[in-house]
Amino acid sequence: MTKSSAPGKIILFGEHAVVYGRPALAVPVTQVHANVDVSDSSRAGIWIDAPDVHLQAELNTLPSDHPIASVIHNFLFLSRVSPFPNLEIRITSTIPVASGLGSGAAVTVALTRALTAHLNHSMTDEEVNAFAYEIEKLHHGTPSGIDNTVVTYARPVYFVKGQPMETFKVAQPFTIVIADTGISAPTKESVGEVRKLWEVDKTKWESVFDEIGEIVKQARQAMESGKWEKLGDLMNKNHALLQELTVSSPELEQLIEAARNAGALGAKLSGGGRGGNMIALVQPEIAEAVSSSLKEAGAKNTIITQVS
Ligand code: PMV
Questions:
Q1: In Å, how far from its chain's centre is CA 32?
Q2: Is 147 considered catalytic here?
């Protein structure tokens, strides 16, 4: 049996503007994972068992654009595997779906690596990343590529669309509380709504994207030099610009306010918005208290994670 696993991810700064060429910062979330086991099968075909999404099927009975089927079809095509092997593939994940934690990219990366290893192929990280980006494009319209990059490299990433991956070092580990509104909000839709705004007034929104890009650069410096109060302040500023972009929601606002009232240094929505997750920067000693306040304010789930 061949196993592979990939972490979740969270965007710290720069979502949406990153689609328009500005930088963004994202980090892996190692508390949650997608796991894939591939083994030879005694029955004919490629059998997929993904209990979290209630999927138990043979590959060829699935529509070819099914997210999991498309990874396997594309992988077999690209790696010129012939004849098709008989396989059992088991996929499990603790990453919540459609909530900004990169679940799709993590399944793609873990599945690609498990197939690569099981079928004695080799793929560099760059190749896995490029492949995962093609899969993201099939399902998410015009993604920036930040999800697949962070998940592939499992390192903090300073990301600019179309440019080589750049990692960065934080001065000391710091603590983030992630809270889930429980509202599943497809990124494709919020990205589409932002595009509509941009098409109506490009000058206005390009200047908002510039402001976000500037915040991202300052945030990287603040992380590299350990200026946590400044970082919290930048989170609040980034969130205000995301509000302008109309991608917040009443539920996100409630959680962000609760985190700030509970003593977080800063808080913002993370990812596509309109639902999904928010993040709060906290001193480690108040992380549990902020997490409790977030649950009282309606969070369906919280994760306390250290960025290092
Ligand atoms: O919702 P998430 O975490 O997958 O992130 C989406 C981030 C956007 O910038 C809104 C879109 C993108 O492709 O970068």
A1: 11
A2: yes
C-beta 100 within 6 A of ligand 1:
yes
Distance separating alpha carbons of residues 279 and 7, to the nearest angstrom? 17
Is the pTM here over 0.70, yes or no? yes
In whole angstroms, what is the distance from residue 178 CA to residue 195 CA?
27
Contact 237 CB / ligand 1 (< 6 Å): no
Q: What is the pLDDT of residues 90-130, one digit of tens each?
A: 999 999 887 789 999 999 999 999 999 999 999 999 999 99
Ligand 1 atom closest to the Cα of residue 104 is 4
Atom of ligand 1 nearest to the CA of 136: 13
DSSP, collapsed to helix, strand or coil, labels residue 276 as coil
Residue whose CA is closest, atom 14 of ligand 1? Answer: 144
**86: exposed, middle or buried (Cβ count in 10 Å: 0-12, 13-18, 19+):** middle
278 Cβ inside 6 Å of ligand 1: no
* 166/267 Cα distance (integer angstroms): 25
Q: How far is the CA of 44 from the centre of ligand 1 (A)?
A: 38
Q: What residues contact 157, with CB distance under 8 A and at least 6 apart?
A: 25, 26, 27, 146, 149, 150, 165, 166, 167, 168
Asked if the bond preceding 173 is cis, omega within 30° of 0, the reply is: no
